[in-house]
Amino acid sequence: MRPIQMVDLQSQYQKIKTEVDNGIQEVLTTAAFIKGKAVSDFAESLQKYLDTKHVIPCANGTDALQIAMMALDLKPGDEVITPSFTYIATCEVLGLLGLVPVFVDVHADTFTIDPKEIEKAITPKTKAIVPVHLYGQSAQMEEIMVIAAKHNLYVIEDNAQAIGGYYTFSNGTKKANGTIGTIGCTSFFPSKNLGCYGDGGAMYCNDDTLANQLKLVANHGQSIQYKHDVIGVNSRLDTIQAVVLNAKLKHLDEYCDARRKVADKYDAAFANHPNIKVPARAAYSHHVYHQYTMIVSERRNELQIFLKEKGIPSMIYYPIPAHKQKAFEGKARIVGDLKNTDWLTDRVISLPIHTEMQDEQQAFIIESVLEFFK
Q1: Residue 106 belongs to a domain with what CATH number?
Q2: Which of 26, 189, 198, 360 has the smallest set of CB atoms within 10 Å of its CB?
Q3: Given a cut of 90, is residue 4 above it in pLDDT?
Q4: Which of 276, 334, 312, 374 has the alpha carbon at shortest distance from 121?
Q5: Which domain holds residue 64?
Q6: Is 120 helix (H, G, I), strand (E, B) or coil?
Q7: Are 167 and 148 in contact (CB under 8 A)?
Q8: Does the pTM of the predicted model rise above 0.85?
Q9: Domain tally for the chain?
Q10: Percentage above 70 pLDDT, the chain
Q11: In 3-state terms, what secondary structure has residue 187?
């Protein structure tokens, strides 16, 4: 049995090695390291995959969120509603821009932002909502979009963990995660369902004017070289990363299906266990399992140590919620008691899940978890 990893990128690479190697060699030969053809090819392919009008690549997922907020001309002091139960990047960009994070609670079963809590948090200063499609599961976008329309708010989807997934509306319509709100933002960090071999990110939207503004901000605020219309940043996807993403995008559905099959086996093994709650699959969400995150009723930290001793990695995403981080002391507003957020941070644990999982590896992981709770 191969050593168990949270994500096995080495084995995944072997299956696309020829295409990736040839593409990278072409970049090296042509020396088109920045703005090479592979970047525009990838943007066009992702645009078609997502069925959205515009895809604007950038340097990473955090930049994508920041650029989105800058393009929407959010001002210091504006309030942005977001979950505290998320990776820090979601909230970090708010602090960087002088915006006020307004932290609200999530559902205890789906881990995603609770629309009822969003409604309670809205004030005249509220300008945007940032739902997070956490662990590969869609937030309740239908309800969120109704709230946003009612209060004239922007919706910036943090889709860093759920590309390849989609949302099913009550009328049966399906839309790719990240294409429902005002702007969608994603990350291509190597461990993501669609990951490159370094850093990368993208924004997507259906509005021509907004797409131009996103491009402007991402390119030093310049519409033509040396003519700077707004204050911008320097954030671009390099050509080598685009080569990798072009190769992987063709397999994204296959990758997501592989993750779902691993999740199916975990679900079956842990179903109805008194100490384990498997991750919920919301009816509206095509879950793509960037992480397989379960809730354990007790001894979570001891379980992690036990697994480590057996050579099984695991992760806690996330042990300290944003509203309890020192960085946000006095800089955020907290609405409600965030009891689900606090409860989850003490109980969640993520098991290895990836496209190259071997049956014997997963069987050993399952056996070890069940052994711990005997």
Answers
A1: 3.40.640.10
A2: 360
A3: yes
A4: 334
A5: 1-374
A6: helix
A7: no
A8: yes
A9: 1
A10: 100
A11: strand
